[in-house]
Amino acid sequence: MLARSILRSFSPWLVTAGLLAPGAATAQATGAAAPTPLTAAGQALFAGSPTPQRVAKQFKFTEGPAVDKQGNIFFTDQPNDKIWKYGTDGKLSVFLSPAGRANGLYFDGKGRLIACADAKNELWAISPAGQPTVLAGQGPGQHFNGPNDVWVSPQGGLFFTDPYYERDYWLTPHPAPIGQYVYYMASETAKPVAVETTLTKPNGIIGTPDGKLLYVADIGANKTYRYRIGAKGELTDRQLFVEQGSDGMTIDERGNIYLTGKGVTIYSPTGERLAHLDVPAEWTGNICFGGKDRQTLFITASEAIFTVPMRVQGAR
Question: If you placed Cys at 115, which of 14, 124, 161, 303 could pair as Cys (CB 3.0 to 4.6 Å)?
């Protein structure tokens, strides 16, 4: 997931990598949107218009949406160091501030919000009352670039990506970058173990609800891969899923994968492109399903948040 300052400095690189088309930032920021291509299978995913509807635009850079058991959505405004709540009643409220410069979020089975806390390159578990506990980043041998996105398996294991992005809010010299890996923690007290060390810059991550498959976006190589998850969290049978990287990502009940960056692109489990949604924002950072019925697609994009009503539910 890219912070706003990082997006600006990386814009030429994003164009080169194919993640941002020349002129796309200007076109999207002014609301100019090309027709949205949909296959028949893609059209069937939407309850109405596939055009994202803006809910609010009062933030600096939105990221990391996650949904709780009730369908409330929590997301970050990283430059303002806040975690917001978008309730099932449609109301917005601040859940936590300061919030450790939180980035990617995901709820665990205990109802805690697992957060990639960029301020000190840690992984947090935040209680429903807003009390954080550091899970990783302070122990011996736990030097990270900055945990970025996280997924909690149904067995309770935590997978997170650790790319290197220089932050403009670092107050002290930062340690030199280390390997940009995917890590696994078998439990909240376990030591993080690198389970994927060959990617250029791992970013978005999501798994299937049965805990058998993991998708990881290599935003540096503009590719997304699929892995089988072993009994001890090991990743095997790596396969190229699509020739497209992603910032954040999500999955629906049918196994379709939703990638972000230049808007939202939806792929079937076999990698067939089903739909692309143009989002009127400079960058689409992340995405999840929420609402009481889990049929609202919630999109964080630059200074704003958007929703799209769906016929499918998010994977549980």
Answer: 124
